[in-house]
Design brief:
By secondary structure, this protein is an alpha+beta fold. The chain has twelve helices and 34 strands. The protein has four domains: about 120 residues, no CATH class; about 220 residues, Dna-directed Rna Polymerase Ii 140kd Polypeptide, Chain: B, Domain 6 (Beta Barrel); about 120 residues, RNA polymerase II, Rpb2 subunit, wall domain (OB fold (Dihydrolipoamide Acetyltransferase, E2P), Beta Barrel), CATH 2.40.50; about 50 residues, DCoH-like.
């Protein structure tokens, strides 16, 4: 007798477990049981496990009987004509979903040529093994597994043409690549996804060589001529949004140019771009501190008397201005209403982003790097035919990472560019590498992708041949302009009196224990005196009880709330954070007694 378990719960026994499991599979294929049910027969324990719970990972496979797939040419013909759909294949038992348990009883063939009478299922396509974005990586089966997944993730961060109606949208912070292209070396998934409708990179000429040590540690060197002609140029869009909020007592925000008697009035210079309605005009060039939407709000706290005398209470300034480090051009102004019927103003800011040192680029094989140098076109190495590479890629990134597909794509891109065709690099179903090399040879180039290059500065020929070709490169959204941040003095937090956190709030750069060690190692330990006193404060301490004393500014002297003014009170320099923890100890009824000692 075989025991039967449904979702790991014992429900009964059957005479023949294997036959019972086969019956369930047949019933499912005849559409008499839900397609999500899976069954697994454990021959060692002679148990049957039926699983129907949610959250299982299932995948579709073509059913095979007697070494032949049930899916035939007639099915494919009907699918192409649109007479049947995927769900019809499921109902006919041609395709079924298997989970990890039922797959233990299945023998799956990779391709139709591999089929034997023992096989139970056939892969729909070898591409199924990888996910959606991973299948966009050309020749992915030649890459190391880790690099393949990194290349897959990098594609999600690339700047491209994300929506055709971007000009009429108000998206949070987006980038548009000006001259996006479809890759010369693509895969089947590029056609399925209609990648030509939303590309996110450019085909560039790339030479693998070092350039005066500037492309060590994954850095890349760019040709200034290519940048000037529009390589990887993009625009950054960000909206500034404000609305006229309604408050209790009939009070309301007002979008206008604030009057000088308004509490928190900035300066006339800050409001210079505002028109009569208090909103900026399009194509105004603005930078940090400039007001984009002028607005005043009623006072925050109204006393009972002020509610009847609104004229006396002055309004406060609550305009929307550009944050620290922001600049750009006003691209679009939209005045509308929100769902509550309040006036809503949306202003879109645009900023052109030309590639600069520190911007991040990557190929589709996880070979990411930042720009270390943008070289004048005259100094870039050139080939005998006068071709100058757009990017110089360091050779040390290849051997240890084993991204062979990166190299094959360069050969494929070179062949495709010269013959004017798209090269198929679908995972497991790509064009043969040797065929691509032979085609490159017929086009008059060396089949190994190398060429003789000449030094752009001296004009001398390099003694070794340089690997050069075409590859699809992506500009990632991690731009220096969005991350550059520094500060001297600025805003501090109310509680700890330490600098605020974050770039947007003009925050400080935190220096920890490890950073301290680097300063000491550099022999700049005195610098720590400056770095570690961001919240320095002077506190009066009673030498009698060791508690914090109080300084009376009117009388010009300090006294201790416990001992009075008959004891010695000394001023002690300490971090405000330390003073704060003393106060917190007191709140916990712990007596933090400070024992003072003279310096000398």
């Amino acid at each position: 007798m075989s025991e039967v378990y449904l979702d790991s719960k014992f429900i009964g026994t059957v005479k023949d477990g294997k036959e019972f499991a086969q019956k369930i599979i047949e019933q499912r294929r005849m559409n008499k049981l839900p397609e999500s049910i899976n069954v697994f027969y454990d021959s060692k324990k002679d148990n049957v496990y039926v699983e129907a719970f949610k959250g299982r990972c299932v995948r579709p496979l073509i059913v095979v009987k007697e070494g032949k797939p049930i899916l035939n040419d007639k099915h494919i013909e009907q699918l192409e004509k649109g007479e049947i759909s995927w769900s019809d294949l499921m109902k006919q038992g041609v395709v079924e979903y298997l989970d990890s348990a039922e797959e233990e009883n299945a023998l799956v063939a990779f391709t139709q040529e591999d089929l034997t009478p023992d096989h139970t299922h056939l892969e729909i396509a070898p591409l199924d093994i990888v996910g959606l974005t991973t299948s966009l990586v050309p020749f992915g089966n030649y890459d190391h597994g880790v690099r393949l997944t990194q290349g897959s993730k990098n594609q999600k961060q690339a700047i491209g043409f994300y929506a055709a109606n971007y000009y009429n949208r108000m998206d949070m912070d987006v980038n548009i690549l000006h001259y996006s292209q479809i890759p010369v070396v693509g895969s089947l998934m590029h056609q399925v996804l209609k990648y030509d409708k939303h590309p996110s990179g450019m085909n560039v000429t790339l030479a693998i060589m070092s350039y005066q040590g500037y492309n060590m540690e994954d850095a890349i060197v760019l040709n200034k001529g290519s940048v000037d002609r529009g390589l990887a140029r993009s625009t950054y869009y960000r909206p500034v949004i404000s609305e006229e909020l309604r408050y209790s007592g009939g009070l309301i925000d007002e979008v206008c140019i604030p009057d000088k008697d308004v509490k928190g009035y900035r300066s006339e210079h800050d409001y210079r771009f505002l028109e009569e309605d208090g909103i900026i005009f399009p194509e105004a060039k603005v930078k940090e501190g400039d007001v984009v939407i002028g607005k005043t709000s009623p006072p925050r706290f109204l006393s009972s008397l002020d509610e009847y005398n609104l004229a006396s209470s002055s309004r406060r300034e609550s305009s929307m201005s550009l944050k620290h480090g922001e600049k750009g051009v006003i691209d679009f102004v939209l005045i509308t209403e929100n769902s509550e019927g309040n006036k809503l103003i949306q202003v879109r800011l645009r900023d052109q982003r030309i590639p600069e040192i520190g911007d991040k680029f990557t190929s589709r094989h996880g070979q990411k790097g930042v720009i270390s140098l943008i070289v004048p076109e005259a100094d870039i190495p050139f080939s005998a035919s006068g071709v100058k590479p757009d990017i110089l890629f360091g050779p040390h990134g290849i051997p240890s990472r084993m991204t062979v597909a990166h190299l094959i794509e360069i050969i494929g891109g070179k062949t495709g560019a010269l013959s004017g065709r798209l090269v198929n690099g679908t995972v497991y179903e790509s064009e043969n590498e040797q065929d691509i090399r032979n085609e490159l040879c017929q086009l008059g180039f060396r089949e190994d992708g190398t060429e003789l290059l000449y030094n752009g500065t001296t004009g001398e020929m390099y003694p070794s041949r340089i690997f050069i070709g075409n590859i699809y490169y992506l500009k990632l959204k991690h731009l220096v302009a969005n991350k550059l941040h520094s500060r001297a003095r600025g805003p501090i937090q109310l509680l700890t009196r330490q600098p605020t956190e974050g770039r947007a709030k003009e925050g400080g750069l935190r220096l920890g224990e490890m950073e301290k060690d680097t300063f000491v190692a550099h022999g700049a330990s005195l610098l720590l005196k400056e770095r570690f006193d961001s919240d320095r404060t002077v506190i009066p301490i009673c030498e009698g009880c060791g508690m914090i004393a109080i300084y009376d500014a009117r009388k010009g002297k300090a006294f201790c709330p416990m001992c009075g003014d008959k004891v010695t009170i000394s001023d002690v320099e300490m971090a405000y954070a330390f003073k704060l923890i003393l106060d917190e100890f007191k709140a916990l009824t712990v007596y933090p007694k400070l024992l003072l000692k003279g310096k000398y």
